[in-house]
């Protein structure tokens, strides 16, 4: 099999996919991609660190992780947490080339975490996604870990922040992740 532990951003959460499943998810994503979402980032808490990275939408409409992966000690201030989130959101892009090597999509995250596989990474990880809509509102969506290591967005628990509420954003993300 060409791709084994592929993670594709779909409907607000990560999902495991086989190559065949990926094609179905890409087609569904094209049909359901929210038009108001302009930028996105993910932040994980694993061990004694926060790991954050920008999300970018490919030319095929799939949201994927992008570089750089930023690592922050869990004792960091709320301002520092908000700062790395904003740095990731600034690096989020639309219409990036669709990847041909799916293994390389999650490699930078796994390297920063010091693990060799997604399964090892998610074992002790919690996650939130942060989206920015057309109006500049930041929406923090807690992610629930599924039985197969995928993360599912909990839209009913989403929190919204204005850009002048950065300290509150950092505090909320810390509480959701730890």
Summarize the entry for a quick read.
32% of the residues lie in helices and 34% in strands. It is of the alpha+beta class and 178 residues long. It has a single domain (6-177), classed as NMB0488-like fold (3-Layer(aba) Sandwich), CATH 3.40.1590.
- Compressed to H and E, one letter per element, the order equals EEHEEEEHEHHEEEEH
Number of strands: 11
With helices defined by DSSP (H or I, 4 residues minimum), what is the helix count?
5
Give the tally of structural domains. 1
| CATH C-level | Alpha Beta
Main sheet?
9 strands, mixed
Question: How far apart are the first and last residues' alpha carbons, in Å?
Answer: 36 Å
Q: What structural class do the secondary elements suggest?
A: alpha+beta
Helical coverage, percent range: 25-40%
Unreliable residue runs: 1-35
Q: Any idea what the CATH architecture is?
A: 3-Layer(aba) Sandwich
What would you report as the Rg, rounded to the nearest angstrom?
15 Å
Mean pLDDT: 78
For CATH, the homologous superfamily is named as: NMB0488-like
Shape summary: globular
The percent range for strand residues is 25-35%
Give the helices and strands, then pairings.
Elements: E1 6-10, E2 13-17, H1 19-32, E3 39-46, E4 49-58, E5 63-65, E6 70-73, H2 78-91, E7 94-96, H3 103-113, H4 118-123, E8 125-132, E9 138-145, E10 151-153, E11 159-161, H5 166-177
Helix pairs in contact: 2-5
Descriptive account of the structure:
The protein has 178 residues and is an alpha+beta fold. The chain has helices at residues 19-32, 78-91, 103-113, 118-123, 166-177, and strands at 6-10, 13-17, 39-46, 49-58, 63-65, 70-73, 94-96, 125-132, 138-145, 151-153, 159-161. 32% of the residues lie in helices and 34% in strands. It is globular and about 40 Å long. Strands 3, 4, 5, 6, 7, 8, 9, 10 and 11 form a nine-stranded mixed sheet that branches. The chain has a single domain (6-177), classed as 3-Layer(aba) Sandwich (NMB0488-like fold), CATH 3.40.1590. The model is unreliable at 1-35 (pLDDT under 50).
């Amino acid at each position: 099999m060409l791709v084994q532990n592929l993670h594709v951003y779909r409907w607000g959460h990560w999902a495991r996919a086989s190559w065949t499943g990926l094609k179905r998810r890409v087609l569904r994503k094209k049909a359901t991609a929210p038009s108001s979402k302009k930028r996105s980032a993910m932040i994980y808490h694993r061990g004694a660190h926060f790991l954050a990275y920008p999300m970018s939408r490919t030319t095929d409409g799939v949201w994927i992780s992008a570089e750089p992966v930023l690592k922050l000690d869990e004792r960091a201030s709320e301002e520092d947490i908000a700062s790395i989130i904003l740095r990731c959101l600034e690096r989020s892009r639309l219409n990036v080339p669709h990847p041909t090597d799916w293994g390389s999509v999650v490699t930078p995250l796994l390297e920063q975490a010091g693990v060799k596989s997604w399964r090892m990474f998610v074992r002790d990880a919690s996650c939130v996604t942060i989206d920015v809509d057309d109006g500049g509102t930041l929406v923090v969506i807690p992610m629930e870990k599924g039985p197969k290591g995928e993360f599912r967005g909990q839209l009913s628990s989403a929190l919204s922040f204005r850009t002048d509420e950065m300290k509150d954003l950092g505090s909320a993300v810390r509480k959701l992740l730890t």
